[in-house]
Amino acid sequence: xxxxxxxxxxxxxxxxxxxxxxxxxxxxxxxxxxxxxxxxxxxxxxxxxxxxxxxxxxxxxxxxxxxxxxxxxxxxxxxxxxxxxxxxxxxxxxxxxxxxxxxxxxxxxxxxxxxxxxxxxxxxxxxxxxxxxxxxxxxxxxxxxxxxxxxxxxxxxxxxxxxxxxxxxxxxxxxxxxxxxxxxxxxxxxxxxxxxxxxxxxxxxxxxxxxxxxxxxxxxxxxxxxxxxxxxxxxxxxxxxxxxxxxxxxxxxxxxxxxxxxxxxxxxxxxxxxxxxxxxxxxxxxxxxxxxxxx
Amino acid sequence: xxxxxxxxxxxxxxxxxxxxxxxxxxxxxxxxxxxxxxxxxxxxxxxxxxxxxxxxxxxxxxxxxxxxxxxxxxxxxxxxxxxxxxxxxxxxxxxxxxxxxxxxxxxxxxxxxxxxxxxxxxxxxxxxxxxxxxxxxxxxxxxxxxxxxxxxxxxxxxxxxxxxxxxxxxxxxxxxxxxxxxxxxxxxxxxxxxxxxxxxxxxxxxxxxxxxxxxxxxxxxxxxxxxxxxxxxxxxxxxxxxxxxxxxxxxxxxxxxxxxxxxxxxxxxxxxxxxxxxxxxxxx
Lengths: 295, 284
Description:
The structure holds two protein chains of two kinds.
Chain A lengths: L4 E10 L7 E11 L4 E5 L6 H5 L10 E6 L2 E3 L9 H6 E4 L12 H11 L4 H14 L16 H13 L5 E5 L7 H17 L3 E5 L3 H7 L2 E6 L2 E6 L1 H4 L3 H6 L6 H11 L11 H8 L15
Parallel strand pairs in A: 3-8, 3-9, 6-7, 7-8
Antiparallel strand pairs in A: 1-2, 1-4, 4-5, 9-10
Helix pairs in contact in A: 3-4, 3-5, 4-5
Chain B lengths: L5 E10 L10 E9 L3 E5 L6 H8 L11 E4 L2 E2 L5 H5 L2 E4 L12 H11 L4 H14 L15 H13 L5 E5 L7 H18 L2 E5 L3 H6 L2 E6 L2 E6 L1 H4 L15 H11 L11 H13 L2
Parallel strand pairs in B: 3-8, 3-9, 6-7, 7-8
Antiparallel strand pairs in B: 1-2, 1-4, 4-5, 9-10
Helix pairs in contact in B: 3-4, 3-5, 4-5, 5-6
InterPro entries (chain B): AAA+_ATPase, ABC_transporter-like_ATP-bd, ABC_transporter-like_CS, ABC_transpr_CbiO/EcfA_su, ECF_ABC_transporter_ATP-bd, EcfA_1, P-loop_NTPase
Subcellular location (chain B): Cell membrane
Pfam families (chain B): ABC_tran
């Protein structure tokens, strides 16, 4: 099913018409295509979290409209009947393991579907299937979620969102606070969900490597609006601008720029170490390169 | 410069959490840290890193068979635990869990009130501490309204106001965004030089580990390896199991080898790798 999400002239003001009013978003025009992988980057306070909370109508625009699949959300939209939408657009908040509460892993994962009216038996079956999807062994099902490691707890929380069978998965810094191994596991899992389950993924991140490795579109937020949007391979070409915003670029891109100053040439700056290594091959003496390597 | 003195000495440390079976959390850990040294402790989750830090700060119920811990020459016993804690400041992972004051300066003053310092001296120390972490401008602010990096800097100010000899960073940068991480590391680096502090940092962050004079690798509660960052970073992909990322130069040399390029088996810093590559390129 097509679930494009389109923002049209969206603005959002917190505590409007009070002395505490503050504008968090303005002039947002954006399309997130069905089945795409969109990364949202920007400083703390740039509006990233406010933006994604419009994707499932947790927030409604103060002006403008958001179209999510066939649903149009405007400032006048009633809070009733938003359940089907919330089911289609799953949201994984920061540190989602803080929201675990049930006695067992399987009960925690089944909670969401049961809340949406699925029978206990069916919800349990779905929950067990979700364990596979997030790469947790079945023998954890009856354990307390609080006995698990940080990375495992986080996957249980994500499984709870996936149990609602959403078409769009929003993740707000899903790897924050994890060690590098945990970070790899979670990002590998997200990539798999995108490729195999064909989920639309929207990822808020500070890791430019993740943007380079996984995203097909990147949105740069600044002071409540979109400063740049496009393919990572295009957006990351403007290294000077991104560094001026103190957002940084993938390590490969920064490294390629250093090499460029020493006479190396790149048609466009690479984003991953494999791309860089390939671009360097023809620029190194023949004797350095083994002839028999498999492509 | 004064002669090197050992400020932390750990001998044959063993510890098992009460009511647990299987492996002990720490087994036969031996460690000596010089005054003014920065030591990073790495290891995957559950390797015993935080347990070791807690043991040094006297936060674990150690018994007679647990081994010996000496801090600044004082042997850790129930009678001396407060003497030892007064020499150590700990910065924890979550910046939101360590605030007690309504304003930034109240928060920094809290520890000083606890030790009953006269008000005049307290004010001087609070000022100086905030200045050291470049947070003077925020003295009257509510801690909750600061960024993650600012919060951790206030936490550090609260610690240095107490004039410890050792700072332990227990994953203190892991919840911060990249700018916050850089802010905190710069602050620690500066303080270490100005106050001749000893820094013990438990970390998964490659930049933090690279800042250290020495890296110690813990696994299953045992010290598996100890050496300069350049030595430890040679482990390449295996660093992931040790709870660290692979440094960029190592990732690129691996990618070059996959493309068939002959790269010498040695550790390259990023600068060394740039130099090696452009020297080759200039010979073409």
